[in-house]
Every structure is written in C-alpha cells, then in structure tokens.
Amino acid sequence: xxxxxxxxxxxxxxxxxxxxxxxxxxxxxxxxxxxxxxxxxxxxxxxxxxxxxxxxxxxxxxxxxxxxxxxxxxxxxxxxxxxxxxxx
Length: 88
Fold this sequence. Notes:
- The protein has 88 residues and is an all-alpha fold.
- Helices cover 83% and strands 0% of the residues.
- α1 runs antiparallel to α2 and α2 packs antiparallel against α3 (66-86).
- It is elongated and about 50 Å long.
C-alpha cells in the first residue's frame, strides 16, 4: 500500500503530461488535420489518467480487486508503449 501511494500520483502526473502535450501539439496543427498519432497519444494519456484515478481510489476502496487493477494497469502500459513506439 505504501508503494501505491507513491506510484499512483506519479502515474497521474505522467498521464497528465502526456495528455497536455498531445493536446498542445494538436492545437499547433494549422495547415492540415491532426495526425492520428497525436490523437492516439491524447487518447492514451486520457485513458491512463482515468486508470490512475481509479488506482488511487482502489487504495482505499477494497471493492476493486487487485487482479482487475493489475490487468487494467497492463492495458494502460501497453497503450502508452504503443503510443511511444508509433510516435515519430
């Protein structure tokens, strides 16, 4: 539980940074449409932000099983990894 109190806020901050940078990059796009990688990065950042908030809530709420949180964390990690690999 102690490590979750440290890791979850770091995950929240990282997801907020990814989301903010993706939205900022989309706003700077002037001449053409926003690239798919930018919109995917914004989706991945927003999804991870939601998962980190659920993870913070799961520290105090015992109704969320640890196995489900582990699976959701793996999904968020794969989404962020795919966004990092695909981004130019």
